[in-house]
Amino acid sequence: MKKFIFLLAFVFSFAAISAQSKPDALVLYRNGNYPESIKICEQEILINPRNIDSYCVLCWSLVRNRQYAEAEVRATEARKIAPGDVRLMEVLGEAKYYQGKNGEALEMFRTYIASAPSNAARIGNAYYYMGEIYIRQGKYQHADISMTTAVYTEPLVDLWWTRCGYAREMAGSYASALDAYSKAIELNASQADAARGKERVAARLR
């Protein structure tokens, strides 16, 4: 009996050590090691083809590694298993956005926003990308609304404030554009695009 208990304890200890020593794809992703994260996720999916968490980290890593077409393929593949997973909706929108598939990306981000909780981690990102798509399409008032929502959700991203200022400037809302550009510079004094934008709209308001 004592031998059995000792053997059982050894097995559990070995399993715990193995789990600790196994590379964590999400940690690798967060540390910017996207190729290694992709590799680990692919191995996990081979073992369990229905591992949606691995699919999500895989797709995030593929997007950050600029493998947009592959990210789209894998996210689409994963959505056949879990069509309601909001993480897959959002990352699929990103993959399509970076390939210039504006209409499809916009639809995916709308689906994500309609499906995800209001405090979901990437709500701000979705509104930001929607704003960029509207800028591409010349729909500057729509872009203003999306960018304003993005910076309201995450108010410390200077790039988003800069792009919000640009959308407002292009929509002819110069005073509010000045506010957005000023906020971007407040967050990042070296934000050159915001500085140039602020000069342009200030001249308009003189």
TrEMBL record:
Annotated keywords: Repeat, Signal, TPR repeat
Keyword Acetylation attached: no
Keyword match Signal: yes
Entry-linked InterPro entries: TPR-like_helical_dom_sf, TPR_rpt, Ycf3/AcsC/BcsC/TPR_MFPF
Entry-linked Gene3D superfamilies: Tetratricopeptide repeat domain (1.25.40.10)
Superkingdom of origin: Bacteria
TPR repeats: 124-157
Signal peptide: 1-21
Name assigned to this protein: Tetratricopeptide (TPR) repeat protein
Source species: Treponema ruminis
